[in-house]
């Protein structure tokens, strides 16, 4: 009785922290156990058993995102060696669809958190800026599976997106001025439509691209 009460109390706490329903938490717990091999934690190598990831050109970045302390809300930098079930839920909560019962303020906060997760994938050195080299790296990886796009073409796409971002975030730049990179506040500035300028230019639609990885299972 005591154990059952403790378990239900723990589920209620996780519902409050993540926004998942108790049924969703149970489903994700089954998926967590599959990934971990019924162990209490998951390590990066456990993701080798996710077939969808094999086809994803940014596989390494998606896996790293699960262990990024920024996404785990455990610090401004660094990568964890392993994550437990609550950590797993924290990461999966970024992929949770926006609830139609949310008010406008809650919707904006939810979208901001999803974009922050995506920003962290670009900002690989955790310095708070997406540099041209970091952005080139992501675009080149995303387009690596397209035989019709050469590396130089991918670099041109990334360079064009960064020029667009600079024009939106900085405006007219001096000839000798160097654009240091996109901050998170810059990342939130739309030029047109809903997506941040650099993601639109390269065809990166935002956090939804991460949902190609079916980690939630069936």
From TrEMBL:
Annotated InterPro entries: CHP3, EF-hand-dom_pair, EF_Hand_1_Ca_BS, EF_hand_dom
Cellular location(s): Cell projection, Lamellipodium; Cell projection, Ruffle membrane; Cytoplasm; Membrane
BP-aspect Gene Ontology terms: cell differentiation
Primary site of residence: other
UniProt keyword list: Calcium, Cell membrane, Cell projection, Cytoplasm, Differentiation, Lipoprotein, Membrane, Metal-binding, Myristate, Nucleus, Protein kinase inhibitor
GO cellular component: cytoplasm; lamellipodium; nucleus; ruffle membrane
GO molecular function: calcium ion binding; protein kinase inhibitor activity
SMART domains: EFh (SM00054)
Annotated membrane topology: Lipid-anchor
Residue span(s) of domain EF-hand: 110-145
Keyword Repeat on entry: no
Role of this protein: Functions as an integral cofactor in cell pH regulation by controlling plasma membrane-type Na(+)/H(+) exchange activity. Promotes the maturation, transport, cell surface stability and exchange activity of SLC9A1/NHE1 at the plasma membrane. Promotes the induction of hematopoietic stem cell differentiation toward megakaryocytic lineage. Essential for the coupling of ERK cascade activation with the expression of ETS family genes in megakaryocytic differentiation. Also involved in granulocytic differentiation in a ERK-dependent manner. Inhibits the phosphatase activity of calcineurin.
Family the UniProt entry places it in: Belongs to the calcineurin regulatory subunit family. CHP subfamily.
Subunit structure: Monomer. Homodimer; disulfide-linked. Interacts with SLC9A1/NHE1; the interaction enables an optimal Na(+)/H(+) exchange activity.
Name by which UniProt lists this protein: Calcineurin B homologous protein 3
Species for this entry: Equus caballus
């Amino acid at each position: 009785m005591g154990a059952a009460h403790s378990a239900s109390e723990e589920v209620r706490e996780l519902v409050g922290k993540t926004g998942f329903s108790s049924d969703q938490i149970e489903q994700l717990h089954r998926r967590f156990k599959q990934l971990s091999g019924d162990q209490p934690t998951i390590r990066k190598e456990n993701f080798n058993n996710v077939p969808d990831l094999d086809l994803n050109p940014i596989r390494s970045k998606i896996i790293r995102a699960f262990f990024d302390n920024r996404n785990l809300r455990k610090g401004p930098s660094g990568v964890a060696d392993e994550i437990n079930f609550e950590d797993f839920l924290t990461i999966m909560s970024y992929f949770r669809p926006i609830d139609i019962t949310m008010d406008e303020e809650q919707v904006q906060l939810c979208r901001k958190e999803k974009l922050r997760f995506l920003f962290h994938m670009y900002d690989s050195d955790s310095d708070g800026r997406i540099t041209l080299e970091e952005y080139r790296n992501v675009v080149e990886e995303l387009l690596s599976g397209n035989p019709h796009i050469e590396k130089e073409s991918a670099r041109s796409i990334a360079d064009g997106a960064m020029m667009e971002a600079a024009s939106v975030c900085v405006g007219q730049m001096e000839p000798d001025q160097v654009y240091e990179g996109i901050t998170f506040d810059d990342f939130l500035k739309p030029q047109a439509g809903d997506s941040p300028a650099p993601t639109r230019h390269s065809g990166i639609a935002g956090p939804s691209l991460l949902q190609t990885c079916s980690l939630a299972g069936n």
